[in-house]
């Protein structure tokens, strides 16, 4: 089989496509490229819907990439075979609307002294501003599914254990399978894979679909942006997690100079908190919003995420239908570098109070004229003196 000419991005998080290691930008994943091509993640967002009753995680991820080529890929680990589908492009816009800061409208009145002129009316001014089928095992690597989803060609892989197999040996066979099918391979990727072979996890390989006639399509000149469609993965898990772990940096790889921003929306029964691995090292993700959503909003989120049943012992698992008791928690990770040494696991937060962004204050300024006391003295004092003087003169003549 001919090797595709494309770059492989081994991503942490359920497919978090990464950039070259960069201490300045927080990009800690390894990129392997053909012919000098490179690819970086410009922005990434994820939605995790956790059904505690059925131990089912629905994971939806969207990313925008900046690349010098037109084809590349990434790997996503899950505890078992995921159910895959493409989600709606509008999903993350709806989530951002739910957690957007509230708009508070205030009127600011400024008083100015009226000019000393009889019959002068004040001019009011105002303005506003805003502050497929399963294939038999081959060399220990089992292809569970292959399909096209959105912009991706997807292959779900598992390692078929036999007597005498080691995690390192299984990772080597997985790496050989990936290399045979066009993915770049390195010692860092083999080491990254070994943990998932040991834990008997599945690896889903995503490949940005290449042009129909790649030999007639030249890679774009310079870097270009690509917005891939969001993909939903549903699978069983003992506890919800974001696949955050990344391969170790390759020696001698130069930093990309590109920054990366991760936003995670977490939907569950109550507010949740995230921790890196066993919690011995802090996850830099910050809670920026948490609260119960309106039922109408949840209905739209579940629908656009295309939540569907994940297999459980051959039987379907019911997806969440009602919004009663559901909370949405939003996390932002701007770390540099990103500590991708383990997955990010979520559990109920000890603090169940809501969190909101600072409101956006929209002020309407209105200027009004007021009459100062000295003007009152003039307006009333002078006439009073004149009247008094006239009265006095009259008595003097009388």
From TrEMBL:
Q: Carries keyword Membrane? A: yes
Looking up Pfam families in the UniProt record yields: DUF2330
Identify the domain of life: Bacteria
Give the organism, scientific name: Frigoriglobus tundricola
Query: By what name is this protein known?
Result: DUF2330 domain-containing protein
Which positions make up the signal peptide?
Answer: 1-18
Keywords attached to this Swiss-Prot or TrEMBL record, sorted alphabetically, are: Membrane, Signal, Transmembrane, Transmembrane helix
Transmembrane stretches, start-end:
373-392
